[in-house]
Amino acid sequence: MKLTNNRYYLDLNATSPLADSVKEYLARGEFVFANPSSVHSEGKIAKRLIMDTSDYLYGLFNLSEKDFKLFYHSGATEAINSIAKGFAFAHEMGNFFYFGTDHSAVRNQKEQLEKLNCMVHELPVLSDGSFDESIIIEKINAQSGPKLVNFTWVNNETGAIHSLESILRVKKATGAIIHVDAVQSVGKIKDWEKLHSALDSYTYSGHKFGSLKNVGFTFLKEGLPIQSIIRGGGQQFGLRSGTENAMGVCTLMLALIEMKEMFNAETLLKAKEAFELKLCEAIKGKGEIVAGTNPNRGLNTINFILYDTKSQTLATALDLGGIDISTGSACASGAVKPSPVLISMGYSEILSKSAIRLSFHYRFCESEVAEYWSAFSRILSRFL
User: Fold this and answer.
1) Which of 71, 202, 246, 356 has a beta carbon 3.0–4.6 Å from 239's, enabling a disulfide?
2) Is the model's pLDDT at 332 over the cut of 60?
3) Which domains does the chain show, CATH number per domain?
């Protein structure tokens, strides 16, 4: 998207600007500040706002309050920690399964889970970011005891989709508890609001779709053997104690209402494909689209590699040229590290240091492609 300062912001998978409805809400200054647990009138207003948002979320995602508990938190990192460790606390010898392409919030559970006597297993992905159902089922069934499997619905770096239908088949074949990291799904795939009630949990972060930061939500199936790790006053069914962020929760609903009204999957796909076609032509023989052979990718994400260019070099040039992107790799102590996601897909360390991720706003349309490509290609051409 083009910002008011004329920069091009192509890093929507990292975070999203506030939705227009959220900015309007903040501009009005009608802030809800009271503690939702208080019995006075202001407290009841805050509680009502949370309840209204919960009602909206159950309706939007077509899940039953009878079958799923809904709790709010600071975002997916907290939720994933809560679910993974809550599972480990509830079982003396459990098994936690994840993919090498999962977010670092998932991958980095290993050390602490093993201290809780929970076995941790990495599941393989194919070179296009997808997975072989039969292999995954076999590896899960090879372990005895309780099992929790994390699936990332839409990959944050490559856009590769692990479809809910495939995940459901794994669920039926293994009996494992399934947690779906749905953070990158909203406004980035068709039918993002259509969930399968047979799966056990779904987690979202509001800042990915235009709410305030540090607020998210999780649907958790009733009766799952998962203990709360955040103990206190027992708010939110005891799943996540602490005073609820009523104002933040309200912005979840505002942003999702706007998203639901404005999102058009076909429009976004056409724009992304038009941009990607130009990119493929430009880098032919000198680079490649990551997971480009995967027909099941998100609508807004393009990850590409230039064979002879480190991602940080190109990212710096783009930044100086007014374009915000992501390298798809972590930086620590000034050194660019290989992307664990690409490594798990079979890329070498050298190539995984050359990945550039572009992620577009859900309102990106074909009429903007020429302008965006002109600005982008002017800088890209220096490296070709």
Assistant:
1) 71
2) no
3) 8-17+264-383 (3.90.1150.10), 20-261 (3.40.640.10)
